[in-house]
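Entry:
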Amino acid sequence: MENPDSFDKKFPVDLANRIFFRLYQCANMLHKTGSRAVEEQGLTTQQWAVLGALSRPEASAGMGVGELARYLMVSRQNLSGLVGRMERDGNVELAADPADRRSRLIGMTEEGRRIWSEQAQDNIHRYYGAALSGFSESDMAHLLHYLLKLLDNMQAIDESAGPREGGDA
């Protein structure tokens, strides 16, 4: 099958519709079933993503709001509300950035680290096993490859559109 560089009559619109509808369904099911997987820790999939991002060694000193929003590919507004709830629940804290006192860094609290490392990981690993049941390691590598390729294309679309009002990251 050809891979056209531009939209034309040969472009398989019906197949593209199916692909993007399935991605939409997968995103919705990830939110629904993923949140169930970590609900006993008081987390949602969005909070899971924030803790996962903050648990990386390169984020050990915290991440700026803009940096975290770009990493998670969410708007600053959506992230601000999410971080506010997580701060209220004691999972993250905001601190002044030593390099720029006007900026704030988001970091995991000890409680957030404990929940992430001691409680949520077993549930997350069980969820991954169930959601990826029947996938070989090769299947997973191929899926990751194609998702990254699609993500790159979508980021190019986003960048070509320029900044939007409302502060999308």
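Helices lie at 13-37, 45-55, 65-72, 76-88, 110-131, 137-161.
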